[in-house]
Amino acid sequence: MEHKLIRESLEQREKEYLSPFAALSSESRGRDRYEKPCDIRPIYQRDRDRILHSKAFRRLKDKTQVFLTPNGDHYRTRLTHTLEVSQNARTIAKALRLNEDLVEAIALGHDLGHTPFGHAGERALNEISPYPFEHSEQSVRLVEILEKDGQGLNLSFEVRDGIRNHQTAGMPVTLEGQIVRLSDKIAYIHHDMDDAIRGGILNEQDVPIEIRQVLGETTGERLNHMIHDIVTQSQDEPTVKMSPEVWNAMMNLRKFLFEEVYENQAVKGEEGKAIRLIQTLYKYYYNDLTLLPEDFLMLLEKGTPKEIVVCDYIASMSDKFAIATFESLYIPKSWQG
Fold first, then answer.
1. pLDDT by residue (tens digit) across 55-79?
2. How many structural domains comprise the chain?
3. What is the spatial distance between Cα 165 and Cα 143, in angstroms, rounded to a whole number?
4. Residue 208: which domain range?
5. How much is the pLDDT for 173?
6. How far apart are CA 284 and CA 93, in angstroms?
7. Residue 49 belongs to what H/E stretch?
8. For residue 179, how far is the Cα from the chain centroid?
9. Buried/exposed 258-280: b ≥16 CB within 10 Å, e otherwise
10. CA distance 159 to 123
11. Which residues are paired to 14 by β-bridges?
């Protein structure tokens, strides 16, 4: 079989098997820059592979999810969060006969633009830069411009749309993007509760009884119930949704986590230090742009405002790299380690 026929046969299989509401690889709106199609992989599978092999994806392993300095090896990082979002989303997509390749590409790429130290780093850049910093937009900027030395990954429209609109305020144009939008919330609600229990901050009985009565008594039961509800409510429907009862219970659980975990000083007491570290690095590079790496200097030469370029560089750092950079600039070597 010629290689070209492999891709075409996979695209034909999608047409024959997937739901009428699925996003078909052969009907993608395509890329900003034309590329000859791969002879083996449909477009969304190719996008998934590009994200998986990107430097930004590898950096996620050393970026904070919620706990800045966890004591133990089993707390989630931004990478493990991303993998859990992908797993949840693929389970739902398979059950609904939607495009798993597209779902996986969006899920793996949705948080590429996150800063070091999680949302604390995001707030730090938002406070100090005159340009709004939003991690979902930064993820799109990264795949469109920053990866591959300024060439970007040239992903399809549908993948970039799903990445841009994965938060509550957005609404992706594809059902696959809508799956990731819900799977992201389900994943962090599930694993942040699990991490909080592991850290001794909460136990299962702390969850309000009215939430447990709807979603279940354990983290595992709740995860299972939310995913089953999406599949049940979205079967053969032109939208991906939850039942009102389960949606309200999930959002109440999210509110509970904000009150008990995300805004808990036992968890977030170190965030002020992380914010000051990020803003100190921002000022350092803003005041001497020549210290930026070459690929970021090229952005300046193309006319990108310096505030955005400095944010690009800071956001690209992992937690470890940001800390090491700060130490090398401000801490005497004899004091380090």
1. 999 999 998 777 666 555 556 789 9
2. 1
3. 15
4. 3-269
5. 97
6. 45
7. helix 43-52
8. 13
9. eebbbebeebbeebeebbebbbe
10. 26
11. none
List the CATH number of the domain containing 235: 1.10.3210.10
Give the pair of three-digit tokens for residue 313. 């560089």
The answer to whether position 140 is within a domain reads: yes
In a domain, 332, yes or no: no
What are the CB-based long-range contacts (under 8 Å, 24+) for 302-309?
305/131, 307/129, 307/130, 307/131, 308/129, 308/131
15 belongs to a structural domain:
yes
pTM of the shown model: 0.94
- Distance, in Å, from the CA atom of 193 to the CA atom of 261, rounded to the nearest integer, reads 8
Q: Is the dihedral of CA 79, 295, 277, 113 positive or negative?
A: negative
Alpha-carbon span 21 to 37, nearest angstrom: 24
At residue 213, φ and ψ (nearest 5 deg) are: -65, -30
- The answer to whether position 219 is within a domain reads yes
Q: Give pLDDT < 50 ranges for the chain.
A: 1
CA distances from residue 250 to 126, 229, 256 in whole angstroms, order as listed: 28, 11, 10
Which residue, 169, 170, 185, is CA-closest to 257? 185
∠ CA 59-111-44 to the nearest 5 degrees? 100
Spatial separation of the C-alpha atoms in residues 299 and 199, rounded to whole Å: 42
Give the residue among 262, 183, 166 at the shortest CA–CA distance from 223: 183
Max CA separation in the chain (angstroms): 66
How far apart are the C-alpha atoms of 207 and 199, rounded to whole Å? 16
Nearest-angstrom CA–CA distance, 16 and 247: 33
Are the CB atoms for 103 and 88 separated by under 8 Å? no
